[in-house]
Write a structure and sequence with these properties.
Chain lengths: 405, 180
């Protein structure tokens, strides 16, 4: 650098300077800086500016928006055999409501939605189930892309549950349908998007009513009314009974769980499966974590609960948690759920996990107008928008393990 | 406003001893004599002086990517922040900073804003760059894709089919966008 006196600006020549640089070929950092300051829904729209912007959209980590959105819907059959279809998305961050659909559609398109019940929702997709005369139709719907993926018909009993697996960044998806068969056997059926038939498995054991199903880290976890917890590993296609609360050795165990307790599962954002035990929807719950390595139930520390916000579904109990960060920070340690009464159908309630006191409406959703639409939580696909074609593609990949079994 | 801040900072220092100034030359040849603590907010300047032991007070540092107009805007911001720092070294008077920043960008046209973002990026003033990109984000919020393209002068490289498909994919996100 001693050349400064001979040459007036040596160090600048090293940096390539192109004064004519415009905005089209701006370094991505720039686009990322600007996109990163927009709310997700804005960012999504603006990503259509050009290909570079679209690529940058996927590179931005969400640091502000953690509260799930709400999907509100109503599907009514009209007298002339068509379907009045309403579907809306509510964004708690922008406090904005988007209309996905408000139209009368043909029965071929929306007929399946009439009377369908939501089973689970994950990363922008909702699994819906519709029973007609002993046959069950399961289908996935994404309000974000307005697409439907149908699955083959199922014949199941009434003690059944369904769920599906989806990860934020991979389009691998499996739908699971569980039912209790004769002699208290557990039947598990799985299907990838695009498969023409279901794969069946049967496991004997004393399985009563299925309480809840939740997906975490490659396995579906299932709780039963007689205090059992089991897991079905998708890859290995193996069922394992993990825990039976009735046979739990008592001295070092947390307080026993009452017989009439409903055990629902919370798929925690950090990968834990939390067992929430409560005797009624509105009563406080005791939360336990199932420690997979030790094979036992442990109390979830208050601190850990304070780091998350729980959202419980509407029909099934299935719940998930989000980190208490960004716009979810103020709801730390709270549990949010829907409660139906005739004056305010599907209102959102918010409790502290260990208290009976509830607040209504909870932070982030208080701006929403009252309507009689059915509501469910839905986590927007913040990291990656998965389209039906992505899910179908991953489903069609032949799995070598499947063939050998 | 810029001149008042500049003069107040120089008058307060002139009472002690002669303040060290750094000469910066913009793309159109104008030389700015900038108080050292203000100039040091420009990372490119700071590292130039830190890395080169041979530079003297007489060295004129050329900044070929920064126009005179952008330089005025940048110095106004940096001088105001230096003034805040001087008055309250422990914690910046948040409300005052916000009021200054709001007034500061209100007076900037979109063209000026873009030019300053480019300059702030080149001069490596992360605080200013962060602030200005936030302002740009606010200005394109709830605007149509066409508006944003025009705002940044970005060329659309999607084919009409690709764009139509993408728009159909998440139609809901285009609802309620402001008129251009």
């Amino acid at each position: 650098m001693g050349s400064i006196e001979e040459e007036s600006q040596p160090s600048f020549k090293k940096k390539k300077i192109e004064p004519e640089q415009g905005w089209s070929d701006r370094p991505r950092d720039f686009v990322r800086l600007i996109l990163g300051k927009l709310p997700w829904s804005e960012r999504l729209r603006v990503s259509l500016v050009c290909k570079t912007w679209k690529e940058c959209f996927h590179e931005i980590q969400n640091t502000q928006e953690f509260l799930p959105w709400l999907m509100s819907y109503r599907w009514h059959a009209t007298d002339d055999g068509r379907v009045d279809s309403i579907c809306k998305l509510a964004d708690p961050f922008e406090q904005k409501c988007y209309t996905v659909e408000e139209a009368t559609k043909g029965a071929d398109q929306r007929g399946i939605f009439v009377g369908a019940e939501p089973c689970a929702s994950s990363h922008g997709w909702v699994l819906l189930s519709k029973a007609t005369s002993g046959v069950k139709h399961l289908f996935l719907y994404s309000p974000f892309t307005d697409e439907v993926i149908r699955f083959p018909e199922l014949v199941t009993g009434f003690k059944d549950k369904a769920s599906f697996s989806l990860n934020p960044t991979s389009s691998d998806c499996v739908v699971i349908a569980l039912s209790i068969q004769e002699h208290e056997k557990l039947e598990i059926k799985t299907c990838h998007p695009g498969d023409e038939s279901w794969k069946s498995f049967e496991f004997s054991g004393e399985y009563y009513f299925i309480c809840d199903v939740g997906y975490a880290d490659g396995s579906f976890y299932v709780t039963f009314s007689n205090g059992k917890l089991g897991a079905f590993n998708i890859k290995q296609q193996e069922w394992k009974l993990l825990w039976d609360l009735r046979s739990e050795p008592s001295p070092n165990s947390p307080p026993p769980v009452h017989e009439d307790t409903y055990i629902y599962l919370v798929a925690a954002f950090n990968g834990d499966i939390i067992l929430s035990c409560c005797r009624s929807v509105c009563l406080p719950c005791a939360s336990y974590r199932f420690d997979l390595s030790k094979g036992k139930r442990v109390i979830v520390e208050r601190e850990a609960m304070e780091k998350q916000v729980i959202f419980r579904g509407c029909t099934s109990f299935s719940a998930f948690s989000v980190p208490a960060e960004g716009n979810a920070r103020e709801s730390a340690g709270k549990i949010n759920y829907f409660y139906y009464n005739t004056n305010t159908p599907w209102s959102i309630y918010c409790n502290c996990i260990d208290s009976r006191r509830y607040q209504r409406p909870c932070k982030g959703y208080e701006w929403m107008e009252k309507d009689d639409l059915r509501r469910i939580w839905i986590q927007p696909p913040f990291q990656r928008i998965m389209r039906a074609s992505d899910l179908l593609q991953s489903g069609s990949k032949p799995n070598s393990e499947d063939k050998s079994s | 406003m810029s001149s008042s801040i500049a003069s107040s900072s120089s008058s307060s220092s002139s009472s002690s001893k002669k303040e060290k100034k750094i000469s910066l030359k913009t793309s159109d040849g104008e030389v700015f004599e900038v108080e050292e603590p203000v100039a040091m907010q420009l990372e490119i300047v700071r590292s130039f002086f830190a890395d080169n032991e041979d530079v003297t007070e007489q060295t004129v540092m050329p900044l070929p990517n920064v126009s005179t107009a952008a330089m005025h805007g940048i110095l106004e911001y940096c001088r105001a922040h230096e003034e805040f720092r001087r008055r309250m070294p422990e914690a910046a008077p948040e409300e005052e900073v916000r009021a200054f920043e709001a007034g500061y960008v209100d007076r900037k046209s979109n063209e000026e804003l873009k030019e300053m973002i480019l300059a702030a990026n080149y001069l490596n003033i992360s605080k200013l760059l962060d602030f200005l990109t936030g302002v740009a984000a606010k200005r394109i919020e709830n605007k149509s894709v066409e508006y944003v393209r025009a705002f940044f002068g970005v060329e659309n490289d999607f084919t009409p089919e690709e764009e139509a498909n993408l728009r159909r994919e998440y139609e809901w996100a285009f609802e309620g966008v402001d008129e251009d």
